[in-house]
Amino acid sequence: MDKVEVVVAHAERVTLRLGDTFMKIDADQARIAVEVQAMAMAPVPTPEVRWHQPPVLAIAAMPGTALGVLGAPSTASAAAWAAAGAAIRRLHEAPLPPWPGRRLDDIVAELDRECEWLVSTGTLPADLVTRNREVAEAALRPWTPAFIHGDLQITHVFVDGDEFRGIIDWSEAARGDAMFDLAILTLGHEERLDDVLAGYGTDVDRDVIRAWWSVRSLSATRWLAEHGFDPSAPGCEVDVLKARM
Q1: Is the Cβ–Cβ distance between 234 and 243 less than 8 Å?
Q2: From which residue to which does the signal peptide run (predicted)?
Q3: Are 193 and 163 in contact (CB under 8 A)?
Q4: 43-67 residue pLDDT tens
Protein backbone atom coordinates (compact mmCIF):
# COMPACT_ATOMS: atom_id res chain seq x y z
CA MET A 1 0.00 0.00 0.00
CA ASP A 2 1.74 3.17 -1.17
CA LYS A 3 -1.03 5.62 -2.01
CA VAL A 4 -4.53 6.78 -1.21
CA GLU A 5 -6.89 6.73 -4.20
CA VAL A 6 -9.84 9.12 -4.30
CA VAL A 7 -12.67 7.10 -5.84
CA VAL A 8 -15.55 9.58 -5.47
CA ALA A 9 -15.53 13.03 -3.94
CA HIS A 10 -18.30 15.63 -3.72
CA ALA A 11 -20.02 17.74 -1.08
CA GLU A 12 -22.14 14.89 0.29
CA ARG A 13 -19.64 12.04 0.53
CA VAL A 14 -16.11 10.92 -0.21
CA THR A 15 -14.86 7.40 -0.93
CA LEU A 16 -11.17 6.59 -0.57
CA ARG A 17 -9.29 3.38 -1.37
CA LEU A 18 -6.29 2.12 0.57
CA GLY A 19 -5.15 -1.20 -0.83
CA ASP A 20 -8.11 -3.58 -0.64
CA THR A 21 -10.10 -1.38 1.76
CA PHE A 22 -12.57 1.34 0.82
CA MET A 23 -13.41 4.08 3.34
CA LYS A 24 -16.67 5.95 2.83
CA ILE A 25 -17.07 9.28 4.61
CA ASP A 26 -20.66 10.53 4.54
CA ALA A 27 -22.10 13.81 5.81
CA ASP A 28 -25.38 11.97 6.47
CA GLN A 29 -24.69 9.42 9.22
CA ALA A 30 -28.17 7.95 8.85
CA ARG A 31 -27.33 7.05 5.25
CA ILE A 32 -24.26 5.11 6.37
CA ALA A 33 -26.35 3.33 9.02
CA VAL A 34 -28.85 2.29 6.35
CA GLU A 35 -26.02 0.94 4.21
CA VAL A 36 -24.69 -1.24 7.03
CA GLN A 37 -28.13 -2.61 7.88
CA ALA A 38 -29.09 -3.19 4.24
CA MET A 39 -25.92 -5.18 3.54
CA ALA A 40 -26.63 -7.35 6.58
CA MET A 41 -30.17 -8.07 5.31
CA ALA A 42 -29.54 -8.50 1.58
CA PRO A 43 -29.77 -12.08 0.23
CA VAL A 44 -26.93 -11.43 -2.24
CA PRO A 45 -23.17 -11.02 -1.73
CA THR A 46 -22.17 -7.60 -0.40
CA PRO A 47 -18.84 -6.12 0.70
CA GLU A 48 -17.40 -7.24 4.04
CA VAL A 49 -17.73 -4.50 6.67
CA ARG A 50 -14.28 -4.10 8.25
CA TRP A 51 -15.28 -1.39 10.69
CA HIS A 52 -17.85 1.33 11.15
CA GLN A 53 -17.01 4.46 13.12
CA PRO A 54 -19.47 7.23 12.17
CA PRO A 55 -19.16 9.07 9.88
CA VAL A 56 -16.77 6.54 8.30
CA LEU A 57 -17.54 3.06 6.97
CA ALA A 58 -14.65 0.80 5.95
CA ILE A 59 -15.44 -2.12 3.65
CA ALA A 60 -13.42 -4.72 1.77
CA ALA A 61 -13.03 -4.55 -1.98
CA MET A 62 -15.56 -6.63 -3.88
CA PRO A 63 -14.05 -9.43 -5.99
CA GLY A 64 -14.54 -9.31 -9.75
CA THR A 65 -15.15 -6.29 -11.95
CA ALA A 66 -18.09 -3.97 -12.50
CA LEU A 67 -20.56 -4.84 -15.27
CA GLY A 68 -19.40 -1.67 -17.01
CA VAL A 69 -19.67 2.11 -16.86
CA LEU A 70 -22.28 4.56 -18.04
CA GLY A 71 -21.37 6.04 -21.39
CA ALA A 72 -19.33 3.11 -22.72
CA PRO A 73 -20.23 -0.33 -24.12
CA SER A 74 -20.17 -3.10 -21.52
CA THR A 75 -17.72 -5.90 -22.26
CA ALA A 76 -19.44 -8.24 -19.79
CA SER A 77 -21.06 -11.31 -21.30
CA ALA A 78 -24.78 -11.81 -21.78
CA ALA A 79 -24.54 -14.60 -19.18
CA ALA A 80 -23.05 -12.18 -16.65
CA TRP A 81 -25.89 -9.72 -17.18
CA ALA A 82 -28.40 -12.55 -16.80
CA ALA A 83 -26.70 -13.70 -13.59
CA ALA A 84 -27.00 -10.15 -12.27
CA GLY A 85 -30.69 -10.17 -13.18
CA ALA A 86 -31.23 -13.41 -11.24
CA ALA A 87 -29.48 -11.94 -8.18
CA ILE A 88 -31.61 -8.81 -8.34
CA ARG A 89 -34.73 -10.97 -8.44
CA ARG A 90 -33.60 -12.63 -5.18
CA LEU A 91 -33.23 -9.20 -3.62
CA HIS A 92 -36.67 -8.08 -4.75
CA GLU A 93 -38.28 -11.23 -3.34
CA ALA A 94 -36.56 -10.88 0.06
CA PRO A 95 -38.35 -9.61 3.20
CA LEU A 96 -38.81 -5.85 3.17
CA PRO A 97 -36.43 -3.64 5.16
CA PRO A 98 -38.06 -2.06 8.23
CA TRP A 99 -37.54 1.52 6.99
CA PRO A 100 -39.75 3.11 4.30
CA GLY A 101 -38.74 4.25 0.86
CA ARG A 102 -39.58 7.41 -1.03
CA ARG A 103 -43.25 8.34 -1.33
CA LEU A 104 -44.72 8.55 -4.82
CA ASP A 105 -45.96 12.09 -4.14
CA ASP A 106 -42.42 13.18 -3.24
CA ILE A 107 -40.99 11.62 -6.41
CA VAL A 108 -43.58 13.41 -8.56
CA ALA A 109 -42.98 16.73 -6.80
CA GLU A 110 -39.21 16.46 -7.28
CA LEU A 111 -39.60 15.47 -10.92
CA ASP A 112 -41.86 18.43 -11.71
CA ARG A 113 -39.54 20.79 -9.85
CA GLU A 114 -36.52 19.57 -11.82
CA CYS A 115 -38.38 19.73 -15.14
CA GLU A 116 -39.29 23.35 -14.44
CA TRP A 117 -35.67 24.16 -13.59
CA LEU A 118 -34.30 22.41 -16.70
CA VAL A 119 -36.59 24.48 -18.95
CA SER A 120 -36.40 27.81 -17.10
CA THR A 121 -32.60 27.78 -17.05
CA GLY A 122 -32.30 26.64 -20.65
CA THR A 123 -30.31 23.60 -19.54
CA LEU A 124 -32.35 21.34 -21.84
CA PRO A 125 -34.76 22.09 -24.70
CA ALA A 126 -38.38 22.40 -23.60
CA ASP A 127 -39.59 19.79 -26.10
CA LEU A 128 -37.07 17.26 -24.80
CA VAL A 129 -38.18 17.81 -21.22
CA THR A 130 -41.88 17.76 -22.12
CA ARG A 131 -41.60 14.52 -24.09
CA ASN A 132 -39.71 12.75 -21.33
CA ARG A 133 -42.12 14.02 -18.67
CA GLU A 134 -44.87 12.36 -20.72
CA VAL A 135 -42.89 9.11 -20.91
CA ALA A 136 -42.19 9.29 -17.17
CA GLU A 137 -45.88 9.16 -16.33
CA ALA A 138 -45.96 5.37 -16.79
CA ALA A 139 -43.66 4.93 -13.78
CA LEU A 140 -45.66 7.26 -11.53
CA ARG A 141 -48.26 4.78 -10.35
CA PRO A 142 -48.76 2.71 -7.17
CA TRP A 143 -46.46 -0.31 -6.89
CA THR A 144 -46.11 -3.33 -4.65
CA PRO A 145 -43.08 -2.50 -2.45
CA ALA A 146 -39.97 -4.63 -2.86
CA PHE A 147 -36.56 -4.61 -1.17
CA ILE A 148 -34.67 -2.45 -3.65
CA HIS A 149 -31.05 -1.35 -3.82
CA GLY A 150 -32.13 2.13 -4.84
CA ASP A 151 -28.95 3.11 -6.72
CA LEU A 152 -28.24 0.06 -8.84
CA GLN A 153 -25.85 1.71 -11.27
CA ILE A 154 -23.89 -0.55 -13.59
CA THR A 155 -20.70 0.27 -11.65
CA HIS A 156 -22.25 -1.12 -8.45
CA VAL A 157 -22.77 -4.68 -9.77
CA PHE A 158 -19.73 -6.97 -9.88
CA VAL A 159 -19.17 -10.08 -11.96
CA ASP A 160 -16.29 -12.44 -12.73
CA GLY A 161 -16.55 -13.94 -16.18
CA ASP A 162 -20.12 -15.22 -16.42
CA GLU A 163 -20.56 -15.31 -12.63
CA PHE A 164 -22.27 -12.74 -10.41
CA ARG A 165 -20.06 -11.71 -7.49
CA GLY A 166 -21.93 -9.03 -5.57
CA ILE A 167 -23.36 -5.52 -5.23
CA ILE A 168 -21.84 -2.45 -3.54
CA ASP A 169 -23.09 0.97 -2.34
CA TRP A 170 -26.30 0.23 -0.41
CA SER A 171 -26.94 3.66 1.09
CA GLU A 172 -30.17 4.18 -0.90
CA ALA A 173 -31.65 0.74 -0.12
CA ALA A 174 -35.29 0.86 0.94
CA ARG A 175 -38.78 -0.28 0.06
CA GLY A 176 -39.59 0.72 -3.50
CA ASP A 177 -40.53 -0.19 -7.05
CA ALA A 178 -38.60 -3.20 -8.35
CA MET A 179 -38.75 -1.73 -11.86
CA PHE A 180 -36.71 1.25 -10.64
CA ASP A 181 -33.73 -1.01 -9.87
CA LEU A 182 -33.95 -2.65 -13.30
CA ALA A 183 -34.12 0.78 -14.93
CA ILE A 184 -31.08 2.17 -13.13
CA LEU A 185 -29.02 -0.93 -13.96
CA THR A 186 -29.83 -0.65 -17.67
CA LEU A 187 -29.77 3.17 -17.92
CA GLY A 188 -27.81 3.95 -21.08
CA HIS A 189 -27.54 0.23 -21.83
CA GLU A 190 -30.97 -0.48 -23.28
CA GLU A 191 -29.45 -3.19 -25.47
CA ARG A 192 -28.73 -5.22 -22.31
CA LEU A 193 -32.30 -5.24 -20.98
CA ASP A 194 -33.10 -8.59 -22.64
CA ASP A 195 -30.02 -10.13 -21.01
CA VAL A 196 -31.02 -8.86 -17.56
CA LEU A 197 -34.58 -10.12 -17.95
CA ALA A 198 -33.32 -13.53 -19.08
CA GLY A 199 -32.13 -13.95 -15.50
CA TYR A 200 -34.69 -11.82 -13.69
CA GLY A 201 -37.79 -13.13 -15.43
CA THR A 202 -39.97 -11.57 -18.08
CA ASP A 203 -42.98 -10.65 -15.92
CA VAL A 204 -42.08 -6.98 -16.08
CA ASP A 205 -43.53 -3.95 -17.81
CA ARG A 206 -40.86 -2.60 -20.16
CA ASP A 207 -42.76 0.67 -20.57
CA VAL A 208 -42.40 1.25 -16.82
CA ILE A 209 -38.66 0.59 -17.03
CA ARG A 210 -38.35 3.06 -19.90
CA ALA A 211 -40.40 5.55 -17.89
CA TRP A 212 -38.00 5.25 -14.95
CA TRP A 213 -35.13 6.01 -17.35
CA SER A 214 -36.81 9.34 -18.04
CA VAL A 215 -37.63 10.00 -14.38
CA ARG A 216 -34.05 9.32 -13.31
CA SER A 217 -32.43 11.33 -16.08
CA LEU A 218 -34.68 14.36 -15.63
CA SER A 219 -34.38 14.31 -11.84
CA ALA A 220 -30.62 13.77 -11.69
CA THR A 221 -29.32 16.16 -14.35
CA ARG A 222 -29.02 19.22 -12.11
CA TRP A 223 -27.49 17.27 -9.18
CA LEU A 224 -24.91 15.66 -11.45
CA ALA A 225 -23.88 18.97 -12.98
CA GLU A 226 -23.61 20.63 -9.57
CA HIS A 227 -21.47 17.81 -8.14
CA GLY A 228 -18.83 17.61 -10.83
CA PHE A 229 -20.36 15.03 -13.18
CA ASP A 230 -21.35 15.56 -16.82
CA PRO A 231 -24.85 14.31 -17.65
CA SER A 232 -24.35 15.39 -21.28
CA ALA A 233 -21.35 13.10 -21.83
CA PRO A 234 -21.90 10.54 -24.64
CA GLY A 235 -24.22 7.72 -23.56
CA CYS A 236 -25.19 9.42 -20.30
CA GLU A 237 -28.40 10.98 -18.99
CA VAL A 238 -29.00 13.58 -21.71
CA ASP A 239 -28.52 10.96 -24.43
CA VAL A 240 -30.98 8.71 -22.56
CA LEU A 241 -33.51 11.53 -22.70
CA LYS A 242 -32.88 12.14 -26.40
CA ALA A 243 -33.47 8.45 -27.14
CA ARG A 244 -37.08 8.85 -26.01
CA MET A 245 -37.80 11.45 -28.71
Answers
A1: no
A2: none
A3: no
A4: 999 999 999 998 999 999 999 999 9
